[in-house]
Amino acid sequence: MTLAATLRFAKRRLPILAAMIAIAASGRPQAWASEQTPVALSADRLIHDLDVLVAGKAQRGWEIDRLERENLLGATLESLCRTSLPARALARAQAQALRDQLGGPLPAELAKRDGDLDALAELVQAERRLRLLDFALVRAEDDCPQTLRPQRQFLGRQTLANRTVLHLDGGGLATLRTSVLGQQLGGGGSGRLMLGRGWSPQWAWFTGAELGGAALLDPLESDQQLKLHLYFAWPAMLRWSRQQFHIDVDAAPVLQLSADGDIRGFGARTGLMAVVSTARLLSTIPYAGIGVSFERMMTGPAGAADEWTIRAGFRVGFDWDFGATGRDRRAWREQAPPVPGLPDSATPTAS
User: Fold this and answer.
1) Packing angle between helix 121-143 and helix 38-60, nearest 10 degrees?
2) pLDDT means per 10 residues in the chain (351 residues)?
3) Which of 146, 99, 93, 149 is nearest to 125 (CA)?
4) Residue 216 and residue 185: Cα distance in Å, rounded?
5) SS3 50
């Protein structure tokens, strides 16, 4: 795609993406809140945590089943030990039902498909999830801390759902700028500090401050000297998550400054980033991603020059659940009542 075609594409998409952010930001978080019972919600969040742990390990390479389950046991028990016995039983029943819906025990399906793992990817995930849960259930009685009782409503640990977090990231950015004066190439970086709220395991919203800059070759200078430009932005970002993978869409007002502090212009930006996260580390979920943004100056000298900027690069950061200590480490909690039709214990059954 040529530069001109890229800019035409960006100009068409900028209002659309900005509208998406505005609509998401104006929606009431209550509309996203779960109406499930504490037991059902706890079971769903436990299964979600297992999905994230299994998928993340499989992405890095799943080798010997027993060894992989042992490696994941600690993180699994951090979720399981905080889940009530009725929720454990419900999660176990749901995990087996999901596995059976996908074709039943894995060995029989592998034999039917001549070992075609690509065709059975979802079944492999479901089988590993079920076996990891069974493994942790056997160990829970001995390994769960005696000072930690299950929570009445377990919100999950490998997720931002139903919690407020502090988001911090930064990275380098390759920069291409075009205007009536010509094209400029260069590089720089930016950092963001934002406050976020998860509405569900699939959706979260963030807003906060960003500071960045770039050193660009000036097309009007005969010696091609680098000139520094700074910018401030206040992004609103919507995140869609699927296990350890995420898509971030953001829009922001942008103020550009020259190196000597003069205002170059005010404009708007929209961006897209593909992100992969790791399992939770203490109270944070680290991640890394690759993103691209399109920026249009509307006022000042930059606006008068019809200036467009494309920034692309690699970012790393984390989401800090700063309320985790008070919520997750508190020892005594009221346990959920038994659920009719489910055993009080979640001891694995033959499957």
Assistant:
1) 110
2) 44 44 39 69 95 92 92 95 95 94 82 76 91 96 86 91 95 92 89 95 96 82 73 96 94 92 93 95 94 95 92 96 76 52 57 62
3) 99
4) 5
5) helix
Structure tokens at 29: 């978080």
Compute the distance between CA of residue 294 and CA of residue 215 in angstroms, rounded to an integer: 17
Say what the pTM is.
Answer: 0.78
DSSP string spanning 79-141? HHTTB-HHHHHHHHHHHHHHHHHTTSSHHHHHHHTTT-TTTTHHHHHHHHHHHHHHHHHHHHH
Within a 10 A sphere around the Cβ of 193, how many other Cβ atoms? Answer: 14
Positive/negative CA dihedral, 336, 203, 211, 213: positive
Residue 193: beta bridge partners?
A: 168, 209
Number of Cβ atoms within 10 Å of the Cβ of 158: 25
Rounded to whole angstroms, the Cα distance separating 122 from 103 reads 10
Q: Map tokens 């800019």 to a residue.
A: 7
Only one residue has tokens 């990817």, namely 121
- Which two structure tokens, joined as six digits, stand for 288? 């890394």
Please report the beta strands in the chain, taking only residues with DSSP state E, as ranges in sequence order. 164-179, 182-198, 203-217, 226-233, 236-242, 245-258, 263-277, 284-297, 308-320
- CB 196, CB 205: distance < 8 Å: yes
